[in-house]
Amino acid sequence: xxxxxxxxxxxxxxxxxxxxxxxxxxxxxxxxxxxxxxxxxxxxxxxxxxxxxxxxxxxxxxxxxxxxxxxxxxxxxxxxxxxxxxxxxxxxxxxxxxxxxxxxxxxxxxxxxxxxxxxxxxxxxxxxxxxxxxxxxxx
Length: 139
Description:
This protein is mainly α. The chain is 70% helix and 0% strand. It is built from four helices and no strands. Helix 2 runs antiparallel to helix 3. The radius of gyration is 29 Å and the shape is elongated. The termini are far apart. The relative contact order is 0.05.
């Protein structure tokens, strides 16, 4: 008994790596991509909050003399982490904007494509009118 590879792929949960073999960008539902983007933004937000909280806790600690400790290593680590988070946020934002513009372009097309489509529709309607008229001639 032979099995359809597409049916086998659909039977796997999306968390299984084999589910994504042979899947193209067009196969992925836009709603799923929207959910993933939202989850990534949420995760970046959680990480940012965590770094801020740790930074505040470190900067509020006092040493035995009652003075605030200056820990350059901790500040540098927090700065590197924040820099990476910023880069990830910028990349995610850029990807989402490109995706939105692509979606808008696919939906509307360029002016030339829209004009050509409209022209085809008008010509098809004219030809259909002539065919139903029986004469094949314009009035």
